[in-house]
Design goal:
The complex is a heterodimer. Chain A is of the alpha+beta class. Chain A contains 16 helices and 26 strands. The longest helix of chain B has 25 residues. Classes of the chains: A alpha+beta, B alpha/beta.
């Protein structure tokens, strides 16, 4: 399938130029040198082709052959994706380990999906059905947590002439035959065999029927996210933060607890040990919704910082194509990319070697376009087969020096609607997740308010806004406190400081390491929030009657409210009612003293 | 003696060439010399990243590396510097292989230059194992996640920023600060940690029961610094377990790009093929960054921040990521890179990008140093990302994680109180805030500060912490559980 299309004339790191055929396609997958290193055509001028190579090019010489494949860079889609870990161009890392040991060597040609596994296929369509792209042919229980739906490839439609009976098949064995073209114009029709294995070019978004509104929140179990800055299913958000501010821990928490049916986690130019942590933890962590190990719904893409930089560039496209594939089955998919800054740096590095004219800070001028293309692949859609599915994207951003005015953060902000700003000062004080409530925002708040009302029953929108008001008030007052000390404030103004402390320590802070606290159901979140606000309102009226703030501060209920997050498990929320009674009892007593 | 050396290295060179199957093609004359880079024309079949030998008119050899190849030209970076090279009189031999260094257990106890050549007067290590200095990336699936903590005997590290085997934890410092002393103390005192309360029964020192080794790599530091470390290793009797790779301040800067890679190549051999626990000290990474910037500059590359090349992150990662543990070996590589932050600026590209790659950082503070605190570890910006997995029940003590969170939170509040006190005066502070002030002072003097040779057990560290926390009212301690307060909080202390 591959024929020589030219010879290498120039090598500079991952960028190679070759001279030869003028018929090579832009973005075509090519193989370079005798070792057949995988690369992609990124530029052409006359008979000179510029190629980015996804592997280390040490020792590559001018004169080495370049082979064309005639295909764009694509991923393999089919049963066997879940529980897998791939590199940036979808090579299975465990298989590489079996072949070459603990270190990754180059020139490995491996099929992403294992060919010999047999999967239990149950047909849903039958002979004679008229089908089109996206129609579900049958199902495979890929893991106990997820049913893999085998679909007609998006670009095909016709009539099924044969569907395999229920049984065990490999992904390359035919499971259906499709006659393309209608029966009327005979002669034009041809028959194709369908297998469970499909390919799709990574840089091309998979088609869907239409976009739907984003009214359902992606519940992550993280209180500061769900209650204060919610992300909608099909939405896109960014987590920017300096090093050590907790980007990765937050990403891991979302990957663990988000109520998505499939999670795609892209470790893009980050640490090797972090991917190892996911690999070792996820098989043992249990998804609270399916009671199955988290790994059974997870696909990992690992292109760590020391792996080839061009493959890092490709990794986020590989990841999002896989996410779209599961979306097309009618699932809700959450995709984490950690970190998009490293991906942008890969763009910059390749652009620099091509000697392109740089825009800001050496980044290429097309940085914003590429970011937009990526984030636009998020969405809540009606699939080709008429189901609804979504891809929600959360990208971590690593701004140099923690300075949010740099190009990647600024451009990202234009294409996302949910911004979770991490704050180094909070992280230093070990306030985690260190999401700054004043700098962060979510444009989905009004969109998802209806869902809260319907599903949780309480007026989340009002509660959230009250809490935000108190936090904003605290911020304003603390400026004054810094100048004159807290004692100079009247007691009515010191109460917001007290309540804000409860909100910060009792609600916003959440320990990813604590078994009870790591994940809060929406019911627990809203009840906790309403308890703290109940405390606030009761205290407010007592202070109006002349009780000093110190009396409120010293109430034992204050400590109870701070500790309730790790004391009350999600399945014993009735304990929170007890806390409400305690608030009332202690407040009643105080009130009677100042009647 | 030197004749023997020459012969040995010649034999080695020949065996290298045989293995690679390339003769050394030689080109006479270069077309351009630009700083440390020469452009060679008329060479065919030159491989990217291949190593070359540059021979000047006097017959002196220096090594170099191919940075870019075209059909007829090659850009070569000369490690020894280009002083004395001429356009016509220079011969360039292409060796047809990437840069390799010998690796052997016998290299422990020896001193080498950047290219792995001995500079201690001893013979070339006798080995036929040569390894590519660039290494290969570790497959994430082959890694073992680090979980064993290393007790350094330093409270601010063991208690607040625990170091684990297989972690990369840099020291962010500034010129004139005590980072060398701290690094040397860590190396001297590092033992495999045991749970609190078990100390003393075994005295299980990692150095006695398991194979350990130290690889020390100096990049552009002064002779005194290298001598200080050597002295310190020698005092602790570890000198025979140390391999030193030196590129000192007066050595050619371009060689600095290879020094850490050579050091890490040996470390990988020792850890992953000889099952040793290797501690790698890299000092000073800032000098490495400058060398990289210099090369990038000469080549006319598009700079990103402060003139550093856009690939600085990937380049640093290619070294820092050569740390960790793998499934097929008992050994481990732990890295302690030292960086002096220019102008103490933590947002400078070198510390900034390092912090994004390494698993935390230990930040030294000039303020603390001036107050006479040693080690001047600024606890709040310091972090060990892997700490959570190496502490707690069965590793250190069950309360360790809450204990450290509480110390962090309380000490962070101390900073607010201090800034308030500087405005309204200490007398105006509330009683609780005054207690915080007292706590803050004691924390720095009694917890962070310790002697150059003081080696605290984890019990001692945890005890000091609880004693200090007991200076605050119980109600303020919301990060520790009520049970922990009952067990460890000292009422009597709070009374005064």
């Amino acid at each position: 399938m591959s024929q020589q299309i030219g010879t290498v004339t120039w090598v500079n790191g991952p960028v190679v130029r070759s001279r030869g055929s003028r018929r090579v396609g832009m973005m075509e997958l090519v193989e370079v040198g005798d070792e057949h290193l995988v690369g992609e055509v990124i530029g052409m001028q006359g008979d000179i082709t510029t190629i980015q190579v996804y592997e280390e090019t040490s020792g590559m010489q001018p004169g080495a052959p370049v082979f064309g494949t005639g295909l764009p860079l694509s991923v393999e889609l089919g049963p066997g994706l879940l529980k897998s870990i791939f590199d940036g161009v979808q090579r299975p890392l465990p298989v590489i380990e079996m072949r070459t040991g603990s270190f990754i060597s180059r020139g490995m040609h491996l099929t992403p999906l294992y060919r010999k596994d047999r999967w239990n296929f149950t047909p849903r369509a039958k002979e004679g059905d008229a089908v089109s792209g996206g129609t579900i042919l049958g199902t495979v229980p890929e893991t106990p947590a997820l049913e893999h739906r085998i679909m007609v490839p998006p670009d095909l439609s016709g009539t099924l002439t044969w569907v395999a009976p229920e049984g065990q098949y490999t992904i390359t064995e035919p499971i259906a035959r499709l006659r393309i073209g209608s029966a009327d114009d005979a002669g034009e029709s041809r028959e194709v065999e369908l297998t469970m294995l499909q390919r799709w070019p990574v840089r091309k978004p998979r088609p869907y029927r239409s976009r739907l509104g984003q009214n359902i929140p992606l519940i992550t179990g993280q209180r500061v996210l769900d209650s204060f800055f919610p992300l909608a299913k099909g939405g896109s958000g960014a987590i920017p933060g300096a090093f050590g501010s907790g980007k990765t821990v937050t990403q891991h928490s979302i990957a663990k607890w988000a109520d998505a049916q499939v999670v795609v986690y892209i470790g893009c130019g980050e640490r090797g040990n972090e991917m190892t942590e996911v690999l070792q933890d996820f098989p043992h962590l249990v998804d609270p919704r399916t009671n199955r190990p988290l790994m059974e719904r997870t696909v990992l893409i690992a292109n760590t910082s020391n792996m080839p930089v061009a493959a890092r560039e490709a990794s986020i496209y590989t990841g999002i194509t896989i996410a779209e594939y599961f979306r097309d089955m009618g699932y809700h998919v959450a995709l984490m990319a950690d970190s998009t800054s490293r991906w942008a740096e890969a763009l910059r590095e390749i652009s620099g070697r091509l000697e392109e004219m740089p825009a800001e800070e050496g980044f290429p001028a097309y940085l914003a376009t590429r970011l937009a293309e990526f984030y636009e692949r998020a969405g809540y859609v009606e699939t080709l087969s008429g189901q609804s599915g979504s891809v929600s994207v959360v990208g971590a951003v690593s701004p140099p020096g923690g300075d949010f005015s740099e190009p990647v953060t600024q451009h990202t902000k234009r294409f996302i609607r949910c911004f979770w700003a991490l704050d180094k000062a909070l992280a230093s004080a070990r306030h985690f997740p260190s999401i700054n409530w004043l700098d962060s925002y979510s444009e989905y708040i009004a969109d998802v308010a209806g869902w809260w009302k319907e599903q949780v029953g309480q007026d989340w929108y009002a509660l959230r806004n009250q809490a935000m008001e108190i936090l904003n008030e605290e911020n304003r007052l603390s400026q004054i406190v810094k100048l004159v000390g807290p004692d100079a404030l009247p007691d009515e103004q010191r109460l917001p400081l007290e309540t804000a402390r409860l909100l910060r320590e009792g609600f916003l802070q959440q320990s990813a390491m604590d078994d009870v606290d790591a994940f809060s159901t929406v019911q627990k979140q809203i009840q906790m929030l309403s308890l703290i606000l109940h405390f606030h309102h009761r205290a407010q009226s007592i202070i109006k009657r002349g009780a000093p703030i110190s009396m409120i501060h010293n109430l034992p209920i204050v400590i109870t409210l701070i500790r309730m997050k790790s004391v009350v498990p999600n399945d014993q929320l009735e304990k929170l009612d007890g806390i409400r009674q305690d608030i009332d009892r202690q407040m009643d007593k105080l009130e009677s003293e100042y009647a | 003696m030197s004749e023997v050396l020459d012969r040995v290295s010649e034999v080695l060179d020949q065996s290298n060439e045989r293995r690679m199957g390339h003769g050394g093609q030689e080109v006479i004359g270069v077309s351009r010399i630009d700083g440390p880079i020469v452009i060679v024309e008329g060479a065919g079949n030159v491989g990217y990243d291949e190593v070359v030998e540059v021979i000047d008119a006097q017959g002196q050899r220096r090594r170099g590396r191919v940075l870019e190849v075209g059909e007829n030209t090659a850009a070569v970076q000369v490690f020894g510097g280009t002083t004395g090279l001429s356009i016509d009189g220079t011969r360039v031999r292409f060796l047809g292989q990437p840069l390799r260094i010998p690796v052997a257990e016998e290299m422990l106890g020896r001193v080498f230059d950047s290219m792995g050549q001995p500079i201690d007067g001893g013979p070339m290590p006798l080995t036929d194992r040569h390894a590519d200095v660039n290494g290969q990336p570790i497959n994430p699936t082959a890694r073992v996640y680090p979980r064993d903590y290393i007790q350094t005997g330093i409270s601010a590290i063991d208690g607040m920023n625990t170091l684990l085997r297989g972690q990369k934890l840099p020291l962010f410092s500034g010129s004139g600060m005590t980072h060398d002393q701290l690094a040397a103390q860590i190396v001297r005192q590092a033992t495999l940690g045991v749970p609190a309360g078990q100390r003393g029964s075994e005295g299980a020192s990692a150095t006695s029961t398991e194979q350990f080794a130290i690889v020390f790599c100096a990049m552009g530091v002064k002779h005194d610094v290298a001598a200080y470390f050597r002295e310190s290793f020698s005092q602790s009797g570890a000198l025979t377990r140390v391999a030193m790779f030196l590129n000192l301040a007066d050595d050619p800067p371009v060689e600095r790009l290879v020094t850490p890679r050579s050091a890490l190549t040996l470390a990988e051999f020792l850890a992953f093929e000889r099952q040793m626990h290797v501690l790698v000290v890299l000092t000073d990474m800032t000098n490495y960054g400058e060398a990289l910037r210099q090369i990038s500059n000469v080549r006319g590359e598009v700079p990103s921040r402060k003139g550093y090349p856009g690939y600085l992150y990937s380049d640093l990662a290619s070294m820092y990521e050569r740390t960790g543990r793998i499934r097929t070996s008992e050994g481990s590589i732990t890295q302690i890179p030292i960086l002096t932050m220019p102008n103490d600026d933590i947002t400078h590209p070198m510390p900034d990008l390092t912090g994004y790659i390494t698993e935390g950082q230990i930040v030294l503070s000039r303020d603390l140093m001036q107050q006479g605190v040693y080690p001047p570890i600024s606890v709040l910006p310091s972090l060990s990302r892997l700490m959570k997995d190496g502490i707690g029940e069965g590793r250190t003590r069950a309360d360790h994680s809450h204990w450290s969170a509480q110390l962090y939170a309380s000490y962070a509040h101390v900073q607010n109180v201090r800034s308030l006190a500087s405005v309204i005066g200490e007398e105006e502070l509330s009683t609780v805030d005054q207690q915080y002030l007292a706590f803050g002072g004691s924390f720095e003097r009694e917890f962070v500060s310790q002697g150059l040779t003081e080696n605290r057990t984890i019990d001692e560290t945890l005890d000091i912490g609880w004693r200090l926390l007991s200076m605050l009212p119980k109600e303020e301690l919301t990060r520790v559980s009520e049970g922990e307060i009952k067990k460890y909080y000292r009422e009597a202390h709070a009374a005064h």
